[in-house]
Amino acid sequence: MKPINEMRLTFPSRSANEGFARMAVSAFIAALDPTVDELSDIKTAVSEAVTNCVVHGYKEGIGKIYIHAAIYDGGRIRIKIRDRGCGIPDIKLARTPLYSSLGEERAGLGFAVMESFMDKVYVRSKVGVGTTVTLCKTLNLKDNC
Amino acid sequence: MSLNIEKNKELTTVYLSGEIDHHSAKFIRNEIDSVVTSLAPRELALDFSAGTFMDSSGIGLVMGRYKLINSLGGKLYVKNVSPGTEKIMKLAGLDLLAKISSKEM
């Protein structure tokens, strides 16, 4: 299906860009007039996915993060967040709440937060190739008629 | 992101403001830990009233500070959290580690 509107972003995996990425997506979605809660949920989910690219995907250095956000009929939005980093050997384990492959005070809740704040979360990954996380949510459109 | 720490041997309060994410968490952690380890307060309160955003990095931050203050025999309080932040904290079960109070509207 063709999106009504879409945008693409590419930026280096510096932690300073985590804030930029969620603000940019939130500004793009703002045209749909989401509620404060909906916007906060989406910002948080994007922040989690981008942080995963920074701390896991490109843990050895800096790489590029690609975001594609699209708006479809009926307030449906789809945000793809992709890296060409190390990939996830075991997606099921990675999605387990409280599991983290890193010690450094990561709560292991990134995917749990994405899953609870979005309608659907899809993860595709290949070791040595990269990871794509797709976040989907349908906004409750206000009836303006 | 900025923070203000009210140092007191009985109750030390950390006022967090702005966005708490993976990028800002490291700075916040270092600032709090240097005060807490040198002062060893009986109670530590994290006040989120001026916080504008928090993701799961904030959970790691609260959990880590709980471990630290607990190892020193102190208690942790989490104050003035927004509904969005409270949702994430409860998802993580932080309410089992610290007393969480919501922001007064």
Question: What features would you highlight for this structure?
Answer:
heterodimer; A: 145 residues; alpha+beta; Heat Shock Protein 90; 5-stranded antiparallel sheet; 4 helices; globular; B: 105 residues; alpha/beta; Transcription Regulator spoIIAA; 5-stranded mixed sheet; 3 helices
Q: What do you see in this structure?
A:
- The complex is a heterodimer of chains A (145) and B (105).
- In chain A, helix 1 runs antiparallel to helix 2 and helix 2 packs antiparallel against helix 4.
- The relative contact order of chain A is 0.21.
- A 5-stranded antiparallel sheet of chain A has the order 1-2-3-5-4, covered by helices on one side.
- In chain A, 33% of the residues lie in helices and 28% in strands.
- Chain A has 145 residues and is α+β, with helices and mostly antiparallel strands.
- Chain B is α/β, with parallel strands linked by helices.
- Chain B has a single domain, classed as Transcription Regulator spoIIAA, CATH 3.30.750.24.
- Chain B is built from 3 helices and 5 strands, in the order E-E-H-E-H-E-H-E.
- Chain B has a 5-stranded mixed sheet with strand order 1-2-3-4-5, with helices on one face.
- In chain B, a hairpin with a 4-residue loop joins strand 1 and strand 2.
- In chain B, helix 1 packs parallel to helix 2.
- The interface between A and B is medium-sized, with 23 and 22 residues.
